[in-house]
Each structure stands twice: as structure tokens, then as C-alpha cells.
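Notes from the 1:1 (GR / supervisor)

We went over the backlog. Supervisor wanted to see one worked example end to end before approving the batch request, so GR pasted a single chain during the call. The sequence is below; no edits were made to it. Supervisor asked that the structure be written out right there so they could see what the output format looks like.
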Amino acid sequence: MAFDIEMIKAVYDRMPARIAAARALTGKPLTLTEKILYSHLWEGTASSAYARGASYVDFAPDRVAMQDATAQMALLQFMQAGRPQVAVPSTVHCDHLIEAKVASTTDLQVAVDKNKEVYDFLSSVSDKYGIGFWKPGAGIIHQVVLENYAFPGGMMIGTDSHTVNAGGLGMIAIGVGGADACDVMAGLAWELKFPKLIGVKLTGKLNGWTSPKDVILKVAGILTVKGGTGAVVEYFGEGATSMSCTGKGTICNMGAEIGATTSTFGYDDSMARYLESTGRADVAALANGVREHLTADPEVYANPEKYFDQVIEIDLDTLEPHLNGPFTPDLATPISKMKELAEKNGWPTKVEVGLIGSCTNSSYEDIARAASLAKQVAAKGLKTKAQFTITPGSELVRYTIERDGFIATFDSIGATVFSNACGPCIGQWARPGAEKGEKNTIVHSFNRNFAKRADGNPNTFAFVASPEMVTALAIAGDLTFNPLTDTLTNEKGEQVKLDAPTGDELPKLGFAAEDAGYQAPAADGSGVQVKVSPTSDRLQLLDPFAAWEGSDLRGLKLLIKAKGKCTTDHISMAGPWLKYRGHLDNISNNMLIGAVNFYNEKTDNVKNALTGEYGPVPATQRAYKAAGIGTIVVGDTNYGEGSSREHAAMEPRHLGVRAVLVKSFARIHETNLKKQGMLALTFANEADYDKIQEDDSINIVGLGSFAPEKSLTIELVHADGSTESFAVNHTYNEQQIEWFKAGGALNIIRASVK
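Structure output shown during the call:
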């Protein structure tokens, strides 16, 4: 029996009429994306058609999901909203705070002990407000959602960029900041600019060494890390329907790395099989009843160029396994080209560690296929050359793969099984020797490979590949090894070739778990006390941000002019900083410490205009705040790429930064800045980035008439007294301007409580 089955039934009951109305208003056949969006309008049945990439639209998501690191701040904000209970089904998942160090059992217990204060807070606040709570060890949020909550045609938001994983079950699932989650949990509309649509037609069928991961690695190479910004990617074609449900999830999951709003697939038999296998035959039966509404109209897929803003076609019959990286997830290299490119670029070719799992590649099928390769190590007389680790996606997967002998197989090649948690994928990996900063190469089936991401070592070259390829490269210990063509020398000196991986899509004996890790909330949470110690260094109740003073912003100092890639990792690092996610002031000590200062090419080293001395970014900003001086942050393209981490917006706001001016924003980060009452601005002319000098005094003019689609003006007063000015753009609508004036969206929610 599925969770929230009555809610799912209600979604399906209203879907036919709402889709019919949307089809009539638009006057054309509809994509799957449009069907789901139009059937989740806040207003109910659509009264007008919306313009892609232009119209701001209010939606009514079906549910909210939060991981433990982001849930802290989301729920601290929700506690200020004055609501007695969440308005939509919501869950918290304890997955981010478990560090991978020794092995699963040991690491989990350490995490439970070390994070007790946070887990107790999350458990009690979930109990009080009617939120489902998944305990530490239950699994990674996106895998648990896929197994329990995702359903075809639904709409969900989650406080993690990889919420999009649920697109593998035909959802529109979108990563957001905690303030957005707070809105929805408070019973308010959720706003999104109506997305553009990218169609990806998959022909042929995956075979041999090629896996679903290779599809998204290829797409990332085509679109780059910002090519999906403001768009939903919809996959279709014979290649899509022939793929497993969890394979579809893998593709959607890494869609976060191309900046896409989300990705999705139309409902098909693979999704029905997965629903039935995970105890949700009732959902499959309901979905089968509205099947025509859970995929695009036939005309769309027959003539995709007419209905999508961009169409990409990939032939799965000829698709090669890929390796993406290092240091960016969109540098896509077919395995046949790796030897040439590694030599050309000086990449270390010895593979030190291979890591499989995470939210994107921890399904039963993924692990089964990797295990089929691990079995060949003994069978062919080989020895694994690199360290090898496995991170199961959930307790349901872990228990099942242990029952079916896969963990024993991995043990036989000396592998380490980490906890059912995020671990190395998010920088929670206590890797021995990483502190030495040695140049080395790892391969993993995660999504992100930014510098310092996995182990904190800026000289770790991380390449992203499928679990199958990771396993093969770990066996070979060589980045340039191509298992399609190359042989290995076994212990007898013989040349042997690895057979292509095999594995069942779903367990023949079904999934099983003794305790999946779910804790239901109290039937009546009104008497539950949520305690936050005033002396805690992990949790801190929030104070409202100040409202706009009603005038232009003058005399701002330049905190930093960031050069090049500036992701949410650069703005608010994860790893050891995750423990402060519930304490805004403490975590603000990591603000922008990873950003490269344009003027000296250093990180965490900026000029203090008050003293003339150089020092850490957070300390410098605290000095400005103490002096009552506002500041501005300047950035490059796709600023805020990466995670949904709203701390990257809240920390500058908390410390007194007034505006962020960049060449372009990643979607989630721009929204997060707006929600917190910040000014998020872009250069009208990107070349104006070069005009900003280190010692400038900066004015932002035109706020008295701040209005949608009306530019503001930046005035620069240089150290020599000369001045110059230029226009800057913004994407604020009327409602978002009110957020700015009020000092943040939460201030408006609070004021609305009678």
C-alpha cells in the first residue's frame, strides 16, 4: 500500500479535465511536461495559456521532500511561519550527515552519536508538524522517494537539486531552497517561471557496456552545465521505453548538472513494474487508468521539432560509455578517446579509488551489473588494482543485495560497503591521506566532480562514469582502460577480457528489509516541544531579516569579484561544514571561501576597504557589517551552479551583503537570493564585469521605481574619483519585488498569519 494513496487518486481524478482545458487554451497537442504543469496550477483549471520562459506561474505541488542538511534551515524557517501543521505530505530524510570513513555499521553509529542533537531536532519538529521522518541509515533521500513516494504525473519539490531523480517515475520533481519548501508546507502557492522544453529522442536500445548513465553523460557534453537552465528535459522514444525505471531515474538525477529545472519520462511498463516491485501495485493500477495523460500526446513525439524548443537525438545502439571530467561534469569523453585526451591534458591515469552508488546509481540493477564484473575478478584470475567502495541507496536496496549475495561478492575483491547515505558524493568522505593534497585520479558514479568535492583535495581528479565502467576501471587501475577492446593480464600472466556486465532490472525474489527506517509523525503534534538550546553550536533559531530601507543602495564596498566557476560549493562548502547547516551564524564562516578573487587569483583572500589589508572573506564581511557598510558580490557566468543549498544565499544576507551582480545565474540560486530579500542582478552588457575595480565604491540606483523588466543602474566611484555607470538587469516580478521590500518572503508569510 502506497503512502498518501488518496492524494494520488485525487491528482488522477482531476487530471483529464485540466489537461483537456489546457489543450483547448494552447490550441495544440501537449507534451508530458505541459500536462503535469497545467494539471498542478494553483488556480485549478487553467484560464489562460502560459508563455515558456516568460510567464511566472503559481503551482500547487503534491508533496515536499527534505534531506537532513537542508531540512534544518527549511524547518527553522517553517517554525516562523506560524502554521500548526504542514499543508501537503512532507518528509525528512537523514542521509547527508553520515561521514564515510571505515564501513557502514561503524560510520552510522558515529554519525548517530555525533549528530544526536540535530537528529533529535528533526525528529521532534517532524513529529510536531505532521512530517514523515526517515531515520539515519534508511537511505538517500532520492532513492527513498523513488521507492516510496514518487508517482507518474505528480509534482514534487525537494530541498536538494537531485530531487529531479523522481522524473524516472514520470514526475515533475524540482529542486528548491528551503524558503520555497516553507511556502508549500505553509499552504501557499509555489512560483516558477514556466519552463522551456528540451526533447531528447532516444532511438535504439542500450547494449553491452553502455548504461543509462552514459545517456546523461552524453547529454551533459552537448548541453554543458548551463544548457538546461530554465528548461525541462523530456525523454522519449523506443530507447526510453526499453530502459528500466531506475535507469530513467539515473538520467533525470544528473539532469541537475546541466542546470535543467527537471527531467522526466512518460509512463510506461517499466514504471509499472517498479511500482509493483516496491509494494505500490495500487499506484500502478491508478496510473494505468489514466495512462494516456501520463505521456505526451502522440503528435508530439511524432514531430518533436514542432513542440519542443530544442530537440536532441541519441542513438543508443551506437552510444559509447563515457567518462566526464575532471573538475566539471560536462567534459564528456567517450571511453575510446580517453587515452588520447588523458595524455594530451596530463591527467593522472592510475586509478586510486573507484566508488559506486549514491542517489543516482545505487539501484538493484546498478549494483547487480557491477557485481557481475566483480565476480569475474576471481573467475578470470585477476586482482583489483584500485580501492573499491559501494554506497547502497537505501536500506531496502542494501538488505536485498546482501540477501542476493552481491555484498559477499564485493567483499571477495576487498571492497568497502559504506552506509546508506551520501558520503563521498557530497564531500563526507574521510579519505586517508587526502590532506596531503597529492595529485591523483578517482572514478565514481556520482554526479559532481568539482575540485575538493569528494575528499577535500583540490588535486583529486574525479571522473564520472557508470557503475559498470567504474568497476572495470577499478579492476584495471587504469583510466585509459577500454573494456570493450582491451585485455588485462591476470595472475598467471594470461591476457583476459572482461565480459560485458549483466544484471536483473529488479530482484527476482522481490525487495525486502527488516526495518526500512520510517518513523510516522504523531497523530496530534500540538503538545510536542521542539527544543533548541540557546548555547548550541549546531542549531540556531532564526531572526527575521530587516526590510529594505526604501532608498537606493549607496556606498557599497566590493566584497569579492569572483573569477570563473563559482558554484554553491564555492559559496558555501559542504564536507565538514554540513554540521552547521542549522546554525546560520556559524556556517556563515564558510561564505565564499572557495571563490577565486579576480584580483589576486587566491581563494579566501580579499581586500578590506576599511584597513587596506587582505584577509578571509567571512571575517572581512563581518568587519563591514560591524561598521554598518553594505557590500556587493560580483560573479561570472552560471553563478550558483550546483546544489539547491540556500545557505549560499542566506549567509551573504546574514552578514550584510546587499546584492549579487553576475553575468548569469543558475536557476535555484537566483530564486534563493530573491526569497531571502537579496538583489540578484545581471550585467546588461557582460563586458561591464571588467569595469569593476577592487577599490570601487558602488551605488545601485533606481530602486525607488523598482519594477519588472525595468533595468537598474550601477554607479562606480573609482579610487581616483572618476565615475562610470552601466545598466543591470533583473528577473523580479511584482511579487518578488515585494519579497525584497519586506526583507524576504518569510516576512510576508509571517505577517499574513492572523
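Supervisor's comment: Residues 553-752 form a domain with the Aconitase; domain 4 fold (CATH 3.20.19.10).
Batch request approved.
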